[in-house]
C-alpha cells in the first residue's frame, strides 16, 4: 500500500490502517506473511448499529454484576 | 443476511460462576431487562421485556453449561426482526482465573431493511445514548 502513496512513509501508512481498522472500515486477510486490506463498502446497517450499542453496554453490565456479586461473597 | 455481530467481555470469575447469569431469570434481570421469562432448556421460552414497549422474544436453542447458551431473538411488533428471527450465541471460554464471554448475533436482516420500517422507528430514536453501563442497578434502557 505504501507504494501507491509515494510521499507517505510506511509508518504513516500503518498508522492510517490502524485508524481505519479501529473504525471497523477495513477487512483484513493474511496471505503468508502479508496482510491484505479491503475497505468495507457497506457501512453498519441500522440493525448492526443498534446492536453495537446494545450488546457492549449489556455485556459490561453483566461483567459488573458478576464481579460485584463475587466480591460481596468474599470475607 | 449481513455478517454476524460479535462482541466480547472479560469477566473476573470462572465460567461456572458466569453461566447462571445467562440462563437464570432473576440473575439475567440484574443486567438486562425489567421482566423476563426464561425456560433454560432447548425449545424453552426466552422473553425479556426491556421496557414498556421493547420486548425481546425467541426460544432457547442450546444450553451447555458452563460453555454455551444460544437463543433465537427478535422483537415483538417488529417486521424487520420479529420474534425468533435472529440467533444470539454466548460462548464462555476459561481464561486464566476468569472468563472470556464471546457473543455472536447471527442471521441479522440485510441492508435493504429500511431503518424506519415498522418496529425499528421506536427503537432507534430511543437509543440516542450508548450508555456505558454504569453502576449495578436497573437497566438504563428500561423506560
How would you summarize this macromolecular structure in one to three sentences?
Chain A is of the alpha+beta class and 75 residues long.
Describe the protein's architecture and organization:
The complex is a heterodimer of chains A (75) and B (143). With 75 residues, chain A is α+β, with helices and mostly antiparallel strands. Helices cover 55% and strands 16% of the residues of chain A. Chain A contains two helices and two strands. Chain A has helices spanning 10-22, 46-73, and strands at 26-31, 34-39. Chain A has a two-stranded antiparallel sheet with strand order 1-2. In chain A, a hairpin with a 2-residue loop joins strand 1 and strand 2. The longest helix of chain A is centred in the last third of the chain and has 28 residues, at 46-73. The radius of gyration of chain A is 20 Å and the shape is elongated. The N and C termini of chain A lie far apart (57 Å). Chain B is mostly beta strands and 143 residues long. Helix content of chain B is 8%, strand content 37%. Chain B contains three helices and seven strands, in the order E-H-H-H-E-E-E-E-E-E. Chain B has helices at residues 15-18, 20-23, 25-28; strands at residues 5-11, 35-38, 45-49, 55-64, 68-75, 86-95, 98-106. Chain B has a seven-stranded antiparallel sheet. In chain B, a hairpin with a 6-residue loop joins strand 2 and strand 3. Chain B is globular, with a radius of gyration of 15 Å. Chain B starts with a strand and ends in a 37-residue tail after the last strand. Residues 115-136 of chain B have low confidence and may be disordered. Classes of the chains: A alpha+beta (75), B mainly beta (143). The A-B interface holds A 42, 45-48, 50-68, 70 and B 2, 5, 7-13, 17-18, 21, 27, 30-32, 80-81, 101, 103, 105, 108-111, 113, 115, 120, 123-124, 127, 130-136, 139-141.
Amino acid at each position: 500500500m505504501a507504494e501507491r502513496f509515494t510521499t507517505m512513509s510506511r509508518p504513516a501508512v500503518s498508522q492510517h490502517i490502524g485508524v481505519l481498522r479501529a473504525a471497523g472500515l477495513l477487512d483484513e486477510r493474511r496471505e503468508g506473511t502479508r496482510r491484505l486490506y479491503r475497505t468495507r463498502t457497506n457501512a453498519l446497517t441500522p440493525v448492526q448499529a443498534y446492536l453495537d450499542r446494545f450488546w457492549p453496554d449489556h455485556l459490561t453490565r453483566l461483567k459488573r454484576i458478576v464481579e460485584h456479586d463475587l466480591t460481596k461473597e468474599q470475607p | 443476511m449481513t455478517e454476524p455481530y460479535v462482541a466480547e467481555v472479560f469477566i473476573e470469575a470462572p465460567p461456572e460462576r458466569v453461566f447462571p447469569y445467562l440462563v437464570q431469570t432473576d440473575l439475567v434481570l440484574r443486567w438486562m431487562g425489567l421482566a423476563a421469562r426464561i425456560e433454560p432448556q432447548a425449545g424453552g421460552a426466552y422473553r425479556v421485556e426491556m421496557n414498556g414497549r421493547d420486548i425481546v422474544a425467541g426460544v432457547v436453542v442450546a444450553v451447555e453449561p458452563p460453555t454455551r447458551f444460544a437463543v433465537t431473538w427478535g422483537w415483538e411488533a417488529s417486521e424487520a426482526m420479529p420474534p425468533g428471527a435472529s440467533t444470539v450465541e454466548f460462548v464462555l471460554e476459561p481464561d486464566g482465573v476468569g472468563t472470556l464471554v464471546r457473543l455472536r448475533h447471527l442471521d441479522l436482516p440485510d441492508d435493504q431493511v429500511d431503518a424506519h420500517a415498522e418496529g425499528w422507528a421506536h427503537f432507534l430514536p430511543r437509543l440516542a445514548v450508548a450508555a456505558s453501563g454504569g453502576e449495578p442497578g436497573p437497566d438504563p434502557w428500561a423506560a
